[in-house]
Amino acid sequence: MNQKVYIETYGCQMNVADSETVAAIMQSKDFFPVVSISEADVIILNTCSVRDNAEQKIWNRLDFLKGLKRRKKNLKVGIIGCMAQRVADKLLEHEAVDFVAGPDAYRSLPELVSESDIDLTHINTDFNTNETYSGIVQYKYDENAISGFVPITRGCNNFCSYCIVPYTRGRERSSSYVDIINEVTDLRDKNYKEITLLGQNVNSYFFEDVKQSVDFPKLIKMVAEAAPDMRIRFTTSHPKDISNELIDAIASYENICNHIHLPVQSGSNKVLNLMNRKYTREWYLERIEKIKSTIPNCGLSSDIFCGFSGETEIEFQETLDLMNIVKYDSAFLFKYSVRPGTAASKNLTDDVPESEKVARLNRLINLQNQISLKKNKADIGKNYQVLVEGFSKRSKEYLFGRTQQNKVVVFPAENVKRGNFINVKITDASSATLKGIIINN
Ligand code: 5AD
Ligand code: SF4
Known about the structure:
By secondary structure, this protein is of the alpha/beta class. About 35% of the residues lie in helices and about 25% in strands.
């Protein structure tokens, strides 16, 4: 009988995509992906290491799973993802854990699960810089999904001094553009309306074969042309690599969404230098100006964190100042968490007290809420193209969708359904959502 496998995903969108890849790998070896933990014979946690609290969540989850295993004797539990790579041995020591696989080792998962029966090695954290999971068609849990992720690069070569990713996901590699286009057309055939090209730094995409060499601007144009009736998004971009050619491509292709996620991390040159970000505040602001002047009405979002080693009050204020200049539509905001093994953990002192980190984070959040509210209010009266995603969480009388700028819009449900492109006039706004009414459909 097929064993049922349940995968729980933590962390980034890359992990969401990876879980679908893992489900496909398991299915090809007679495991059956399920969506309810109570049915599972095998539970896999796809983990994140980016901050300490992401790892803490997993340790707590494992304590819960230990209890579940007592009640269900044959249940197996495995850990994959960044934390599996970072602390494999420690994880295997936990009573609940039967097997561990790092981000380059997912093809070996079916064997690892079987071997965990017969006390062989249950661990694979080998790096494989050639691994792009080429040839695997991601398993789709939702037959009616309209939006999907397509990984185009894996790993990272940037070594920002605070970041664990280069150590957990290894060196950067790009998938073949042929595979990527095939994946996009496959999703198009499955009635998808939107895809997001994924990578730690999509802008450094590069793939060469006998026919041609393809960089990111070229790739995104190829994708946009292969799927003219689909929305194309991408994330994440490193500011040092965001080229005019890419900005021009977004401006000239109707189906490449007018939204750029461009993490700045800090507004202070001293801090950016300590972070090894390889750009200055001035460079970043020039890129933002270029985006604003080339793509009218471009949605802008960012990742920012406070309390990095050596960040003084003055330098923190430079971050607030930069946020006031750029006026992001939204931002992911964090406080610094030392990651063992990174350059910052070895060479810098984590010298901002926790209470100060919390206070600064609250100031970041308050400022961004004010900016988001102002920007959303400025949308009132404007019309936007919205891709309908489904019913609003609060009421079946309302639907929700997203603008190209990646803003969520809620509107009364009328004769339209998931996957439709509609025009919506914005009538009201909060800091998190827009409200509107459907026009001329
Ligand atoms: N501490 C806090 N935030 C971090 N990020 C990455 N590493 C750390 C860390 N050690 C944030 C960055 C990154 C996002 C994914 O997480 O803002 O862009
Ligand atoms: Fe977390 Fe980064 Fe790994 Fe994604 S790549 S799971 S965000 S540590």
